[in-house]
Amino acid sequence: MATVKPFKAIRPAAEYAEKVMSLPYDVMNRKEAAEMAEGNPYSFLHICRSEIDLPQQEDPYDRSVYEKARDNIADNLKKGVFIQEGKPALYIYREIMDGRVQTGIVGCVSVDEYLDNTIKKHEFTRVEKEQDRINHFDVCDADTEPVFLTYRDDSRIRDIVNGFVESHYPVYDITADDGIRHILWVIDDAALTEKLTALFAEIPALYIADGHHRSASACKVGIKRRDEHPGYAGDEEFNFFMAAIFPAGDLKIFDYNRVIKDLNGLSEDEFIEKIKAAGFTVRDMGEDIYHPEHKHVFSMYLSGRWYRLEAGSDIIPDHVIDSLDVAILQNNIFDPILGIKDPRTDKRIDFVGGIRGLEELKKRADSDMKVAFAVYPVDVEDLLRVSDNDMVMPPKSTWFEPKLGSGLFIHSLK
């Protein structure tokens, strides 16, 4: 059963919140981070991408980068840009994007429940990306960005959250430059906090939606602290890490599309014929953008024209992973026809988040790539089913929007 624990968040003072909040650390490179933070000394990018404050340091993984992040947190606390909650609390965090609302609870979850798979995963992690956040959390002695978790809806939790929102003013109500609205309430009622904690204890599992590297890194720092404190009791802050936890019914997964560099030596006509022979029905849709209308239907853009590809029933296996559309493409077109064996490492394939639209696919295929494929978005239930079966989604299967705002919460490990 799931542990969700209140904590004393370090967060921006209300008058600084809009200036502090930034995009997550992993959605931009160093140059973009520097440009975003230019002229704004309060931006959280000075903490989550603190290499921008060390222009003489070219190595983004040098210890001085993490020490700068730690010092910037301390400096913001000293100046009153950040405050720390006087007592442990849970937080209600609402995001509104294009009229769609997702509302979750921010609290701390258990390192042990990550290890015993009560907190379920659906992606592999990369050692170098883990190590970066391990160093960051370790030197800062804090989780600086929450992991994005989900769970199967519970009407009792939803009713409590909605009731609190309707009867209390938020501490922040920020509309970011991208138009996404971020609203935060502090639950300062101890009885209500205990009730929410008890209800989450009845939830059988939490699921990582986004933030596999952050969660793995936070857990490894927690284990490191345990090794450093062999007499630990189990209730110390380093036994927990910070998460924003949303009901599955609130979430939207966007498509995650593919562009390919070449046709593996085939002519366009040969390529299309091989797709047909592989078990797809192919229809020329003309020059207007075509969007897949349901699962197992794909959009392909090639040399100025859009095509509708529909997978035949004989190539849709009764398998949790292989029946996913990205797996159908990989197993029937990318590998056998285009020779792309490992999409994680092959330089001939690239990935485009659906938030950028199919115009971006057309642009890429008309410039640096040759052919583009768009898929119908994965269901949240697909993700939960994969996780329940202890399986791993194919690479680049899910794109969640909106992203969590960074800088609204820090969880101290002290």
Question: What is the topological layout?
Answer:
Blueprint: E1 10-12, H1 17-20, H2 30-37, H3 45-48, H4 63-79, E2 82-84, E3 90-97, E4 100-110, H5 111-115, E5 119-120, H6 127-140, E6 142-143, E7 147-151, H7 155-167, E8 172-175, E9 181-187, H8 190-200, E10 206-210, H9 212-228, E11 240-247, E12 253-254, E13 256-260, H10 268-277, E14 280-286, E15 297-302, E16 305-311, H11 325-334, E17 349-353, H12 358-365, E18 371-374, H13 380-388, E19 399-400, E20 411-412
Parallel strand pairs: 5-10, 7-11
Antiparallel strand pairs: 1-2, 3-4, 3-9, 4-11, 6-20, 7-10, 8-9, 12-19, 13-17, 13-18, 14-16, 15-16, 15-18
Helix pairs in contact: 4-6, 6-9
Largest sheet: 8 strands, mixed
The mean pLDDT is 94
Distance between the termini: 26 Å
Provide the spatial order of strands within the biggest beta sheet.
5-10-7-11-4-3-9-8
User: Rg from C-alpha positions?
Assistant: 23 Å
Descriptive notes:
There is one protein chain. By secondary structure, the protein is of the alpha+beta class. The chain is built from 13 helices and 20 strands. The strands form 5 sheets. Strands 5-10-7-11-4-3-9-8 form an 8-stranded mixed beta sheet, sandwiched between helices. Strands 14-16-15-18-13-17 form a 6-stranded antiparallel beta sheet, sandwiched between helices. A hairpin with a 2-residue loop joins strand 15 and strand 16. Helix 4 crosses helix 6 and helix 6 packs across helix 9. The protein is globular and about 70 Å long.
